Amino acid sequence: MLVPRPSGTWSLLRVPMLPARIDVARLQARTGRPVVHLDECDSTNLIARQRARVLLQQGDVRRRALPLVVAEHQLAGRGRLDRRWRSLPRHNLLFSLILGPDLTLVDAPRAVLAWAAALAETLDVSLKWPNDLVDGDGHKLGGVLAEHEPGPDPDRVGLLVLGVGVNVLQTEFPRLPQATSLARLRPRSVFDRTELMADLVRAVDGVDLAAPDLLERWRARDRTIGRRVRVGGVEGVATGIRDDGALLVDGRPVLAGDVELIGAR
Questions:
Q1: 146 with 38, same domain?
Q2: Secondary structure E strands in the chain
Q3: Contact yes or no for 131/164 (Cβ under 8 A)
Q4: How many domains does the chain have?
Q5: Cα dist. 35→87, 99, 138 in Å?
Q6: pTM, whole model, 2 decimals?
Q7: How does 109-143 read in b/e, with b if 16+ C-beta sit within 10 Å?
Q8: Residue 81's pLDDT is what?
Q9: Measured between alpha carbons, how far is 55 from 160 in angstroms, rounded to an integer?
Q10: What number is the average pLDDT over the span 169-191?
């Protein structure tokens, strides 16, 4: 791009090229899901929840191919505890899956942990309870936000929206010293965002929620258990997770909260 100089001459300004957009046709072919692709939105979870409400009104959600909502940029992305999730346009993965598992509401937290474990396995990273995607030093490169849209049965899942954010190509995170990305972890690797998103969606869709060892996959990727932690006003050693997904801190169950790791394994 040419820009004028004060002297009256012109100077060539190099404008960095944005990474390629998500290839929607390839993503649909690999996942078998209809894709709602947006250049920009407030939140993919917000759009997905609106779609989920319409699907529930139409009924028969167990037999439908449920949508995948993808954004190149979010203006009001949220993580757990309503934290903001900021991302450069076309650098990272920002998507929400609509899921229709045949589950009771009591079993839903276990399912979310299992889906987070599938994401961690695909990315070859670790997990911090309940569903932060982290590197070996605990730096966060992604996370999951699950939200429920109720159906006709108040005791069972209507539809679940699983929002996923993964830092892929972004390498600078001002005022976020604990953030990282795949590009920072593996600087010599080349990342195709479309292929990576398809791999993650297929991993989530492939989880067998009826497996008797459902949470073992999460435990295998965990870096919380055995550490001294602070969460929800409780401080102590994280000793395990219950079958319902609650974190045990010195034997006391914690159902929700943001874990701060304050001691070594």
A1: yes
A2: 2-4, 10-12, 35-38, 68-71, 93-99, 126-128, 132-134, 140-149, 159-166, 228-231, 234-241, 247-249, 252-254, 260-261
A3: no
A4: 2
A5: 21, 14, 32
A6: 0.89
A7: bbbbbbbbbbbbebbebbbbbbbbbbbeebbbbbb
A8: 44
A9: 12
A10: 93
